Amino acid sequence: MIAPAAIALAGAVDEGFFRDRSSDTLACEARPDEVFCFGWARENIDRFLTPTLEHLEMVVASVAAGFVVAFALALLAHRRGWLRPPLLAATGVLYTIPSLALFFLLLPLTGLGRTTAIVVLAAYTLQIIYRNTIIGLANVPAATKDAARGMGYTERQVLWRVELPLALPEIVAGLRVATVSTVALATLAVFVGAGGLGTQIYGGGNLTFPTSVLIAAAIVILMALVLEAALLLAQRRLTPWRRARAS
Amino acid sequence: MGTDMRGGRALLAALAVLALALGLAACGGGDDETDTEATAGGGAAIASNPDNADVTLTIGSKNFPEQEVLGEIYAQALQAAGYKVKTALNLGSETVALKALKTGEISGYPEYASTALTSFFGLEPEAVPADAQGAWEKANAEFEKEGLTAFEPTPFASANAVGTTAELAREHDLETVSDLDGVSEQLTLYGSPECRQRIDCLAGLEKLYGLKFKSFTPVDIGLRYTVLEKGQADLSILFTTDPQLAAEKDRFVILEDDKEVFPAGNVIFVTTQKVAEEAGPDFERTIEQVQEGLTLKVMQELDARVELERQTPKEAAAAYLRSAGYVK
Amino acid sequence: MSAALPAASFGGAIDFIFGKQESNVTGGRKVGGLEQALELTLKQLEVTLLALALALVVALPLGLWLGHRGRGELLAVGIGNAGRAIPELALIALVAALIGVGMVTVTPALAVLGVPPILTNAFVGVRQVDRAVVDAARGIGMSELEIVRKVELPLAVPTVMGGVRSAAIAIVATATIAPLAGVVTLGDYIINASIYGEDGRLAGAILVALLALALEGALALVQRLLTSDGLRLQTP
After folding, report:
1. Which ipTM was obtained for this model?
2. Count of domains in chain B?
3. Residue C88 to residue A184, Cβ atoms within 8 A
4. Do B10 and A229 touch (CB under 8 A)?
5. Which helix (H) or strand (E) holds B78?
């Protein structure tokens, strides 16, 4: 038995519903040339919380995934020099192809959503991390490695206890560049429905609303700065011997 | 030691700023206090029917402000009636929306009767009935052949329109679209990316009015007034329900559509016959009830809240439902 | 983002590039085909090369000079870092809404994205040149300008070109979203997929990828031609 819904009277909004919008009472956000509306920003800043967290999550996941893959490839190519040119070329191709294109080349395989975004963002970081790791390892003085071998280190120990620590500044430098780039690039994830701060730039009419775009851009830049500073600090912590020298 | 401490302090400071910003975002803002509306208007409250609880409906809409508000209004109303409701307010065009409906991805969406007739059923724009009932009946007849159905139309109708600034209209003595004949070659036209393809937009202007423009530049519809104001566009495709037309009455002018290439369309909610049956009578009843308050003036007000005041469609829809008394 | 388009296929995308098809939006206008694909490709190439040229004109002399004088390291390297953090989508949106749409406003915006890598790499490239070589050149009486032109620049070519190629990548990627600001490039197929269909979108992605790779290839060739034989033997 279905209870009948209430019978409708002709609905009408009350008089207070309509707002006066003549030219001189137009609010800041309604005027097209206004660069930034502080009032709207104050009242609507909560819109940016979820996108910011989504964005951060995407960045961390992408850089972590990219690092794991690029690092593994670099270790592989460190021992087998013949692998270097093809790997550099392959990571280079992924770096050259614009992310928007890569999103949709991958779409038939991975569909809309965060997975596609993370895979593409990670792919973009491969070249810089791979290249920096290779260069960092290559720059370790032969004498240092010989000394370690002389002390009885196995090749494995030489790698993990001597080469990698010495290559760390270079590797982290690559990670820093990768992270900053990824924070900016992750704004494009909105095109594959993966959320992030791009939704406050492109989604829902925000494209033509400078206040929202500026707030999103400011958060992106701030996030990049903070993450970069964090990595720099981590680098300093992990290489205490460098502090001994004046830099 | 010194440099490390400085770096550490700088990082802590930056983290503090970021945390503060996020904290403000989490605690501050909020949209509850926006409308201190007067007492509710003349609509009767929608009663929640527990029989609807096992029906899940997905309400879709195209992805521009007017459609998104309508989608939210229907979604929130159906929720008040006791249904489980999801929304998909991001469908790119009417073809995409129709496909989503047919494949069951959405349960229904608001369509313009004129768009349905010209786009789905191949009617020439001039043949679209001028009255809401006639257009709805004609569209519904066609929809029913495909296993779909359309509910009764809204009070308001919307149409594309060729707009320009008052000065330009005076300068070239423009009152109707046909007046552009002979002048249009010197004028630039700006419209949505889709406009290039649509018979009720550029394609219609070129084919049915026989006009050629100096150039057509596709821009996001959110910029349709900005390009006029900045002097970049001579002509721009506007909508007759635009709040900007009401707010700045003497700045913008719409050219009269004398050849009826831009038929006005009332909104009709389209769904499949199967979904309508399974959802019960409250589905149609709620939708037709809640849209009764959508006069042109109200729709313009809602469009203004979303487009001009940058409220979310959800907020604007909620305000309408409260003010009209459909939802407490 | 519209979710209801039918699945794309590579075959469908190839068909889209080579043959006109019915649009997703009815109106009788067909979309796709070689002519349209070529038009959009050329537009993307045009705006990319113009922006790259503009960025070169602004950043290369400045970077070379600063590197030669050994001044402004903070500026040159700092701008390089800062440039990476600029979200291109926001830049395009702001330009479109605040300044205007069209080539005249979009080209400088794209150039802004190309300046940081060129500036930084020009600076670093020149700084890395062996001071002894520079001193020797001064010793034989070359003017400062001649030193930059005939000694430092040729030796810095790999690094400088690295910057130019980075700039090109950033610019061509942003040119893909230029349709949001009224410059209709291949990105139109991707951004306005509701008109072109999923096959069209995939076709756009393929064409953009090919264009970017071709541009990189061309610049790699230019780098090869500009690198002196002596340098080429050295670099790994």
Report:
1. 0.89
2. 2
3. yes
4. yes
5. helix B65-80
